[in-house]
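Continued from yesterday's entry.
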Amino acid sequence: MDVRLPNIGEGAEGSVVSIVVKPGDTITAGQTIIEVETGKAIAGVPSPTAGVVGEIKVTQGQKVTPGTVILTLTGAAGAPVATTSAGAPTAKPAAATPVRRAAAPIVEDDEDDLPVDDGANDGPIPGASPYVRKVARDLGIKLSRIRGSESGGRVTIEDLGRYIAKLERKVIRAGRYAEEPKGLSFEPVNVDFAQYGPVSSEPLTPLRKIISARMVENKVSLPHVTQFDEVDMTRIESLRAAYKAAYEKAGAKLSPTPFIIKALVTTLQKHPRFNSSLNEVAEALILKQYFHIGIAVDTDAGLLVPVLRDANKKTLLEIARELSQIAEKARDRKLGAADMQGGTFTISNQGAIGGGHFTPIINKPEVAILGLGKTCAKPVVTAQGAIEARPLMPITVSYDHRIIDGGSAARFTVDLVKALQEFPEADVKL
C-alpha cells in the first residue's frame, strides 16, 4: 500500500525535516515515519498500519502536501494491511476470531480536482449515519462526492468537514486570483551579487520560508493601519518592585509582560472587535468569547508565536509561570502545531532588545497586534504642571482597517493605556 501524508494541521504545505525509517524496516501502527515542519512547528507523521517499509518516496527538504505518497508498505506477518488497488482483497487473519478492520488511510483530494456540481460525477451514495446525511442534505452537499475514511467508504462528520474546508479554500483562492491586480505579480530576484564584491550564501531554512510566505500574505492581503502611543509605566514598576520577591519565591518572574497581558484582556473585553476574525467566505465577523494571546518569541531559528490560552481565566502568577514555560519551549523548538494555533490577539515585545515604536504585521486571521518598545525615562509634565522623569513605554497597535475604524482603534489604545497606568494592586497580590 501507499502511505500518504494526512492533513497535518495549519496550512496545506510542509517540508520534510527528517526520515526516521529506511527500506526493509518493520514498523508498527502509529510509529513515526517522517517529521514534517509546517506552521512553524515540527510534527511526526505516524504510520497508519504495521508493515515492512518498501520504497521511500520523499527526500529530506522536499515540500509535501496532504496526499503526497511518503513510502510504500508491504504486509508484515500477522498484520492485515489495506491495499490501494480497487477491488483487490485485503489480507485476512489466519485465526477464526473476528478482527476489526482498520479504517483505510485518508487520502486528501487535490482541491483543484474537486467535482463540479453538474451531475456528471454522481455515483452510489456511500454509507453514513442519519446525522451526517441530514447535515449534508441541509448544506446541499451530495455524499457521493465525498471519500469516506471508514471501512467500506462510510462517510463520517469529519470527512464532511474536510470536504467543506476544501471547498472553502478553493473559493477563497479563486476569489483572490480573480481580483488580484496584475501589478502584484513580481519577478523573483535572481542576481549574481558576486559580480559587485565578495559574498557568502546560506540556504533558507524551512521555518524561514514559512515565515516569509506568511508575512507577505498578511501584509498584502490586510489593509494595515498603525496607532502609536506611550504608556507611563510608573505604576507597573512600583508594583513590580513591591511584589517581585514574593513572585520569585512562588517560582515566577514578575516581568512587565504579565501586567500587559492582564490589561490587554481587560481592554479586549471592552472592545470585542479586536478579538475577532473575518470569515471571508461567509462574509461574517466571528467574535470570539475566549482570549488566547499569542506571544511572539525571538529564537535562533526565527520568530515563533506560541499561544497562552484562556488568559482571562488566569491569575497574574499563573500567567507569569506559563510565559516562562512557553518561551523556553519555543527556544528549544519543542513547540507543537497545537501550541501555536487558535490565537485571538498577538503581542510582539521588543523591549528587552531595545528600540521604540515599530509597525508590527498582523498575524492573520487575527485583526490586530500590539507592539511594545523599550521603556525609557523621559520628561513628563504632570497634572500639577511639574516636569518629572517618568518611565515611558512606546506601544503600537496595527489593525485590519476592513474591520476596525480609526476612531475605534484610538479608543482601544486609550483604554489600554489607562488599564496599564491604573493597574489594580488586587490583581497582583498572591
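--- second protein ---
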Amino acid sequence: MKRQILSIILCVLCFSTISAKDEQGRIVVSPDGSGDYSTLTEAIRKIRGDFDDPVTIFVKNGVYREKILINATVNNVTVEGENPDSVIISYGDYSGLNNMGTSGSYTVKIEGNNITFRNITFENTAGRVGPAVACHTIGDRIRFFNCRFLGNQDTLYTGGRNGRLYFKDCYVEGTTDFIFGSATALFENCRIHAKADSYITAASTAKETPVGYVFYRCDVTSAPDVTRLYLGRPWRPYASTYFIECSLPSSILPAGWENWGNPDNEKTARYGEYDCSGPGASTAGRVAWERKVSPTEAARLISPSFIYTRTLTWDPEEPAK
C-alpha cells in the first residue's frame, strides 16, 4: 500500500512539473507575476527529468537578475523571449570572486541537450575585471536565434568537446578571448563586436574534432579606439577557427592570428579564411601557418552535415525533437 501511495504521489509531481502552460502550450515567465512563474530558475526547476515531449518556456520582457544552471536533466526545451533587447538575463560574477574560477563565473550555464534559445540577452555585468562569462555551454545540440551575449573578457564559453552549437542572427561582444572553448560551433549571419585591442577567439578544439568555430557571413566590428585586433589564438594546440564570407574591419592586424607565445602551436592550429571582405580582409600579410581554404572546403565547412554529424545527424534548422 505504501508503494502504491508513493507511486501516485510521484505521478502527480511529474504531471505538475509540466502542466502549467498557457493557451499555446507554453510555460510563461513574467517578472510582474502575471505568468506561471516570476523567475526562469523556478520554471527550469519544474521541467527537469528528461521529458521526451518538447517544452517551451515563454519569457516576457524584463531584467532577470539570476544565475541560472540548466543541468543535464533538462532536455528538449525551447526558451523564447518576447524581445531580444528587453528579455535580459543578468548577473555579475567573475573569476577570482570567492575563488570561483572562470567556469563558475557564468550568468547562464547549459548542461542539457537539444535546447533552443530565441530572443534572449545573456549578460555579465562584472565589467573589465578579468574572465566573466555570460553564457557557458556544456551540452550538445544547443541553438541560439536572435540572441545577444554581452560582456568583456570570456563572454561566451563554448565548453564540452562533443558539443555542437548553432548561432544565427546573434550579437556577441567582448574584449579578450570573448568566444572561447572546445565545442564545434557555426555562427551564421551574426555580428561579432570587439571592444578592446585583443583576440576575438580562443578555441581549444580537440585533435579528433573535425572543426571548431566557423563564422559564416558574419559582420565583425570593433569599437572606434580598437586598432590591434586578432581573429584568434589557440587556447589548445589543435584550435580550429574559420571565417567564411565575413566582413572584417580595419582593426584586424595583417598577421590575423597569434600563436599564444608558443611556436609549436603553429604546427597544429587549424586557422583559415575564405572570400572575406572589408578593410581587414586582405590575407597578404597573414601568418604563414594559416591554412589555405579552397572553395570546396569552404562549402563543406558551412554545411551542417559536415560540422554536426559525428555519431548523430542533426540539422540546426530542423525543429527541436
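Residues 2-307 form a domain with the Pectate Lyase C-like fold (CATH 2.160.20.10). Residues 5-20, 310-316 have pLDDT under 50 and may be disordered. Will compare against the first tomorrow.
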